[in-house]
Amino acid sequence: MRFSIQIKGNLKFLDTPWLMGILNVTPDSFFEASRQKNLDELLKNAEKMLSEGADILDIGGYSTRPGANEVSLQEELKRVIPAIEAVRKNFPDSLISVDTFRAEVAQKAVEAGADIINDVSGGNLDEAMFETVARLQVPYILMHSRGNPQTMTQMCHYENFLIEILHFFVQKIKKLRILGVKDIIADVGFGFAKNIDQNFFLLKNLSYFQILQVPLLVGISRKSMIYKTLSISPQEALNGTTALNMFALTQGANILRIHDVKEAKEAVILYQKLRDS
Question: Which domains does the chain have, with CATH numbers?
Fold first, then answer.
C-alpha cells in the first residue's frame, strides 16, 4: 500500500522508508549521546542528521525511558519550544516532530514550528490531545503504551498480546477519524509496557499491523531489547540496532526512529536494493 501524509498543504509520499532522527533536550535520556546540552549542540546535530538523510527531526523534552523522573509542564516547554524555534529558523525546510504526551506542549510546539505530534501515550495521558490534534490538523503519531514512564514496567501482562494491541489502535484510530484527523501513523511502542520477549515477538509480527492501513513507525534504536539481549551497553548497541531495523523494514516499517542516521540510511538503501532486485 502506498502511504502519504499531508504537511502544511503539501502531500509527501513514503515510497522510500523515512528516517526520524532523535534530538533529546533532556538531561536523562537512556542513551547519553542523544542528549543535547545546549542550542549550539542541538543545531550541530540537527545539521548532521539532515545531511545524512533524516526526513524528520524528533525533538523531545520529557524522557520516557522506564522509571524516568517526572517533568513539569513548564520545564518541558522551557526545553522544547526554544529548540523547535532554533531548528525551524536554521533549517526552514526540515520536518520537525514534537515528542510529547501533553496537549498544551503539542499546541505551543506547532505554533513554534513543529509539523508533527509524536505522542507516546496514544492520548491516554492527556484527554485533550486528540481534540488538539484535530484542531491543529497536523499528522499524529499514535503509540501503544500503558501507564506512564514511572509505572509501565509493571503493566506487561496481556491475555492476548497482538489482539489487545490491535484493538487499541482500532479504537483510537476510529476516535481520531471521527474528530477529523486525517494523517495517522501507528507506533506499536517497543519497550512501553512490554518486556524483552514481548518486544521480539512484536517485531517478528510487525506485518500483522499493516491491516490498520496507516504507516508504521518503529522505534527500537539502542533500546534494552537489544543491549540487554547482547549483554552490552546502549553505547555498544548500534550494530544490533541496524540488524533489527533491517528486519523491521522487511516486515513493513515505513518510518524508523533512530539515533544514528547514517547507518539507518545505509540499511534503507540496501533494503530497497534487495526489495527491488
Answer: 16-276 (3.20.20.20)
